[in-house]
Each structure stands twice: as structure tokens, then as C-alpha cells.
Amino acid sequence: GFSVGGWVTTIVTGARQRQGADAESLTVIMQGWIKGLDFGTWKAGDVKAANLSIEMAVNRYSFSLDDIPLINIDLENGIQMISGADYGESIRKALKA
């Protein structure tokens, strides 16, 4: 269950399709702590009114397009991989991490 202060992993999947092209899958994975929950106004039988907003302090984030990892950020381990370039590598080497 969700609770403020709890550690969660959230996976969001979808697709995009450009005109005249095949659809491509999208995947976003976020891990972090829940900072706040807003259940909005839920009404029996009204699926459209049932919204849940979650405010997270994201510690890890990854984004893939068609199963190709484009962004991988892991704050705890100093990883900042964007389109294959590791922007955190020199910092990890300097800290001998």
C-alpha cells in the first residue's frame, strides 16, 4: 500500500507513434519516497472522478524508448547515463566510488 514516507517503485508504460511509422514502446521507472498523497474527490460509480496524485522524492529514474535505455539516473550511486554518455563517471572516479 501507499503511505507517506514509504519507498515505492512506479512503472509507467505507453507508446508513441509518428505519422507513417510503427508504434514504439515507452517505459519510465521511478523509485523513491512518497512525500504526499491526494485522493481528490472519489464518488461511487464515477470512474472519471477517481484521481490519485502522488508526490515523490525520486531517487532513481530510467526512461527507455523501444527497449533502448536513454536516461538512467541513480542519485545514490552517482549514475547519470544520458543517451549512452556517463556524466557521473568522472565524479565517481574522483570519489573512488
Q: What's the average pLDDT?
A: 89
What helical percentage do the residues reach?
under 10%
Largest sheet: 6 strands, antiparallel
Dominant shape: flat
Using the CA coordinates, give the radius of gyration. 18 Å
Number of helices: 1
End-to-end Cα distance: 34 Å
Q: Give the structural class.
A: mainly beta
Show unreliable segments: none
Our estimate of the beta-strand percent is over 45%
Strand line-up of the largest beta sheet: 1-2-3-4-5-6
Question: How would you briefly describe this protein structure?
Answer:
This protein is mainly beta. Helix content is 6%, strand content 53%.
How is this structure best described in words?
There is one protein chain. The protein is mainly beta. The chain has 1 helix and 6 strands. 6% of the residues lie in helices and 53% in strands. Strands 1-2-3-4-5-6 form a 6-stranded antiparallel beta sheet, with no helix packed on it.
Can you tag this structure with a few keywords?
97 residues; mainly beta; 1 helix; 6 strands; 53% strand
